[in-house]
Specification:
There is one protein chain. The protein has 9 helices and 14 strands. It is α/β, with parallel strands linked by helices. The strands form 4 sheets. The protein has a 7-stranded parallel sheet with strand order 3-2-1-4-5-6-11, sandwiched between helices. It has a 3-stranded mixed sheet with strand order 12-9-14. It has a two-stranded parallel ribbon with strand order 7-10. The radius of gyration is 19 Å and the shape is globular.
Length: 322
């Protein structure tokens, strides 16, 4: 059955891919984005676009909507450390305004874009949803605060909500991919070296307790991620706030990523050794057992070479202005 959804932040990387999947499933989609970090060309054809802030969602949200998928957040860890108030105002204050608008309009289903940064330094690997949450930066803290806010909203007002805690999202979906400015994610940064836009890729730390001494991360294809959002919207239950990790359950080191980029692109990728970054855990890998059990979600694009190949195809398209 066709439904109508509001996608906040739908001009950004993950939001645009989720909006595209919703449209392909036959749903009506309105994208709300202020374009502060998103791109107008990222809004899928067929979606209604509204340029505006999530704080003003009440201007557009009405009882005709079946649910909201919420991606409108600032997400740069380093920036959050030097400008934390920006993250509290937008990520926390914006979500509070959105929840009020949803309550007033009688829209009672929410899927929230959360993050593994809520856990901070992991106690165990793989990370489960019951592990301690102790964010090491204001970005992760702001997302955790929103998770607490949603839990209260579900208990007090019957909201049906699912928070999806992403690990390392990567890859592309056709014409939808990563175009952050500044870019901070490893795969697109390594691809910039292959494109000749960077001289080398910095390897921050080579003495971690991992097989090759570099950090290990769990990479999830953005299309697998999008499919989880559609399942989450269907599985949300009134009065419950379900939290699910999204990851593949296995990790790839920084060196494995670099070598995969070399093989996929056929380009040399020079490395530059750099000191460890403070707060970088050696291993971040998710247990996605809850998502499998509660949402019926199974990632099908777990091959690192496939993830890199999709990201490479998008990077070349973007470089050519396509």
């Amino acid at each position: 059955m066709s439904k109508k959804y509001l996608v906040t932040g739908g001009a950004g990387y993950v939001g645009s891919v989720v909006a595209a999947h919703l449209l392909e499933a036959g749903h009506a989609v309105t994208v709300l984005d202020d374009l502060s970090t998103g791109f107008r060309e990222g809004v899928p054809s067929g979606a209604q676009f509204v340029e505006g802030r999530v704080q003003d969602a009440a201007r557009w949200l009405d009882p005709s909507y079946d649910g909201v998928l919420h991606f409108a957040a600032f997400s740069q860890v380093g920036e959050s450390v030097v400008d934390p108030e920006k993250y509290w105002v937008n990520n926390v204050g914006g979500t509070m305004s959105l929840l009020g608008a949803m309550r007033d309009a009688g829209v009672r289903r929410l899927v929230f874009s959360s993050t593994a940064a809520t856990y901070g330094e992991p106690v165990d690997t793989p990370i489960t949803e019951t592990d301690p949450t102790s964010p090491t930066n204001p970005y992760g803290a702001s997302k955790l605060a929103v998770d607490h806010m949603i839990t209260g909203e579900a208990a007090a007002h019957g909201l049906a909500a699912v928070s999806l805690r992403y690990f390392n999202v990567a890859g592309a979906y056709g014409s939808y991919g990563e175009r952050h400015d500044p870019e901070s994610h490893l795969i697109p940064l390594v691809l910039q070296v292959a494109l000749g836009k960077r001289v080398s890729i910095s390897v921050y730390g080579e003495d971690y307790p991992t097989p090759d001494g570099t950090c290990v991360r769990d990479y999830i294809h953005v299309a697998d991620l999008a499919e989880a959002h559609l399942l989450a919207m269907d599985k949300a239950r009134p009065g419950e706030h379900l939290i699910c990790n999204l990851g593949n359950g296995n990790g790839f080191s920084v060196r494995e990523v670099i070598e995969t980029v070399r093989k996929v692109t056929g380009h040399p990728v020079p490395e530059a050794a750099a000191p460890r970054r403070p707060g970088d855990p050696a291993v971040l890998v998710a247990s996605a057992a809850t998502a499998r059990e509660r949402l019926g979600w199974t990632p099908s694009r777990s091959d690192l070479a496939g993830i890199v190949a999709d990201a490479w195809a998008f990077a070349r398209r973007a470089e050519a202005g396509l």
